[in-house]
Write a sequence for this structure.
């Protein structure tokens, strides 16, 4: 195997496990909380909000460290080892109560909240850092980010699918085994990261800088540019839509009548979304060249409208077909904004702040936007879409979310002006 092929293979393995260790539980923790533990939506919502809070707090900080003080691949490996430790603690809450009696004052869902939060503080910044590491290594070897990265990133989605299938087929979607799957994958990835090519900080110079620059806050200056500020604002709005899908997708499918195909294999059916991702990722270079970044992201926003619109009618006679269609359009909805957006940030920021800028992008989507989506949707569903019988009015909830996505898409169409540098 030549050196270029070896580099691509190594980054492919990184991408696979980056999302394998998340896919093991991300779409099924809702089923674990609401069915396995019979917790309420607000309790589950609080636990799920840790993803968003972690994305607000950590990616930019970790990006700053990678830009200025620590080799990115080593920092990345350390984060996954910490994440693995927290995932291993979740199935052993009973032991924590036994050895730390003071914790007994906390309800189990409260302790789970803090354990998931700790894991997310390590994992969420690793998403943007994995992009930065991959971009850096590709460029170090004379490869083209726009052409080569999508073929590598698609394996992240395949890893996510593999973890979902493993969780479902092993009977783990409503129990703690999903966290063991995540932990062992993260232990491997953490160790593997230390063998990657060195990604030394690029922000070190002898030039005198302000305190803000020394702390790495230069990426926030991007908000002074109208185009980038608007891009980040829409990243927030899109992040809210994405969170709705992650939070409720498997719980919605699991609410179908017991014994039906949809209920029994909810996670596998839901994984069609990720299969669709693998296809649409590979089309990104073509769509970017043919339609430009604005139209590609616009396609994504309208795809979210279809995603939730199809879900809204999933309980009808042709419900399974509509659910499958919803999962298919998800690939475009996710890839054409999240991955193209990451590449857009790469192309429109200075090399010295790119890790910080990638962290800022994750903060907007998986952080602030996701937190807004978590809090608002938990309130709305609890207040307006819980029927007197105690069942959830998923039809009404999904229609509301489809309407929200439509408003965001129309605003983006009217306000965002395209100006892109070569990737």
């Amino acid at each position: 195997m030549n050196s270029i092929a070896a580099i691509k293979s190594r980054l492919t393995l990184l991408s696979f496990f980056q999302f394998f260790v998340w896919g093991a539980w991300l779409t099924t923790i809702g089923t674990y909380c609401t069915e396995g533990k019979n917790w309420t939506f607000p309790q589950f919502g609080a636990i799920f909000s840790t993803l968003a809070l972690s994305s607000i707090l950590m990616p930019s900080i970790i990006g700053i460290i990678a830009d200025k003080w620590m080799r990115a691949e080593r920092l990345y490996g350390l984060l996954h080892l910490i994440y693995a430790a927290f995932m291993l603690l979740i199935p052993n809450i009973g032991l924590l109560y036994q050895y730390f009696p003071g914790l007994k004052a906390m309800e189990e869902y409260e302790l789970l909240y803090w354990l998931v939060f700790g894991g997310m503080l390590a994992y969420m910044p690793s998403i943007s850092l994995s992009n930065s590491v991959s971009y850096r290594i590709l460029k170090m070897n004379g490869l083209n980010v726009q052409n080569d990265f999508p073929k590598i990133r698609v394996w992240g989605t395949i890893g996510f699918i593999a973890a979902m299938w493993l969780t479902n087929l092993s009977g783990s979607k409503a129990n703690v085994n999903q966290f063991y799957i995540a932990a062992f994958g993260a232990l491997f990835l953490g160790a593997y990261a230390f063998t990657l090519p060195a990604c030394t900080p690029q922000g070190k110079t002898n030039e005198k800088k302000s305190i803000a620059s020394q702390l790495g806050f230069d990426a926030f200056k991007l908000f002074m540019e109208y185009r980038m500020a608007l891009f980040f604002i829409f990243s927030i709005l899109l992040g809210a839509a994405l969170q709705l899908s992650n939070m409720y997708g498997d719980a919605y499918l699991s609410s179908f009548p017991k014994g039906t195909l949809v209920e029994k294999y909810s996670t596998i059916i839901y994984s069609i979304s990720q299969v669709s991702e693998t296809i649409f990722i590979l089309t990104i270079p073509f769509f970017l060249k043919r339609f430009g970044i604005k139209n590609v992201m616009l396609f994504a926003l309208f795809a979210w409208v279809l995603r939730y619109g199809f879900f809204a009618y999933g309980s009808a006679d042709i419900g399974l077909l509509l659910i499958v269609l919803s999962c298919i359009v998800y690939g475009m909805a996710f890839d054409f904004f999240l991955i193209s957006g990451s590449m857009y940030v790469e192309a429109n920021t200075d090399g010295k702040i790119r890790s910080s800028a990638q962290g800022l992008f994750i903060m907007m989507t998986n952080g602030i936007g996701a937190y807004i989506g978590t809090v608002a949707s938990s309130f709305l569903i609890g207040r307006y879409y819980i029927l007197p019988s105690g069942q959830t009015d998923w039809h009404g909830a999904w229609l509301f979310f489809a309407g929200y996505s439509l408003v965001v898409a129309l605003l983006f169409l009217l306000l965002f002006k395209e100006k892109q540098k070569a990737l």
User: Anything to note?
Assistant: The chain has one domain: 9-200+221-415. DSSP finds 17 helices and no strands in the chain.
